[in-house]
Write a structure and sequence with these properties.
Shape: globular
Structural class: alpha/beta
Largest sheet: 8 strands, mixed
Helix content: 25-40%
Radius of gyration: 21 Å
Distance between the termini: 21 Å
Strand content: 15-25%
Strand order of the largest sheet: 1-10-11-6-5-2-3-4
Length: about 400
Amino acid sequence: SLNTTNFITRLFALCLRKNKMQHRHQSNRRPAVPLGSRILTDPSKVFEHNMWDHMQWSQEEEENARKKATENSLVKVQSEDQDKYEREAKILPDKWRQEFKTEKISSEHTKIINDNSFSHKNGMFEEGEKYWKKSDEGGSAAVPGYVYNKNQVKALTDNPQGKNCEEEPGKVESFPGCDAAYRILEVGCGAGNSVFPILKVLCNTPGTFLYCCDFASGAVELVKSHSSYNSAWCSAFVHDVCDDALPYPFPDGILDVILLVFVLSTIHPDRMQGVVNRLAKLLKPGGMLLFRDYGRYDTAQLRFKKGHCLSENFYVRGDGTRVYFFSKDEVWNMFNLAGLTEVQNLVDRRLQVNRKKKVKMQRVWIQSKFQKPLLSLHNPEETTKRHP
């Protein structure tokens, strides 16, 4: 329904605050126009704002970017070092790990929860602003929350949120959030920079439940120890999405939304399809997977020096974290093979500007929505399966 779509879109906008773009040169002033609608029509005014939306690349710009990526990929990381990065696969940079020790992030969370805005430090996302100019239906991308139908309202009345499920005859084993009518999973939650703004919405939306997981146990512990964490509508847990044998703390086929934002790019390309396949199984028919990650020839890719390339379009940073740069076709193919259908699959090209140094940076991201069909071609029985 439209209300469901709007709710999903709003969650996606909140989660996009995890955007890893460099923001130290961003202004803290609230943007004068909604994000997504700032179009550069006069090149002489390029340094008047920090970011320009929907940039079109010339054929020459595209070719130059391709050449730079080819050049910085000529020297590959040695195989023994590649094995080391795969074994150690650090999800969070060292500076984040240091923040875990000093608990600086905890104070930032408190600031986020006490503030009425959902803005990131770079000021890009604030409540009421549109990340995309329009939603799929042409409406605003930042609108009031989800409205439940009568059956869901009755379910909430019969099973109030906040109580763990009790064992009942013929009922599946209890799990966190089993009484909820609407369930969301954020993969790669980190220290909770998206968790708490989302929870701020969910705590006023009865019957919703948020699962969040991360590879780093320190990050999950920080989320769970935060004063705004409440097990009545959130369950944070440690999970390695690359480990197919590792069960999730809830059954397959129960999730309405999965947020996969700047996570898949950290995983070895050989493992990506398996990760997507497993996540697709967690969705209920009609459930939506929201994806955003680095796009091919983003400034971050072109800045790598020789010797940092692991494989084609896959690099290692100085802190040991890895990053892959996707094409739109790759993303479509990956999720299609997992049995999901495209709702949206866009290349988001923006021009980021360092106004002080007069430097221009072409940023490229992929933003997508993929849905699990109501009639699954991979598993026709899925439509008749009863979900808790």
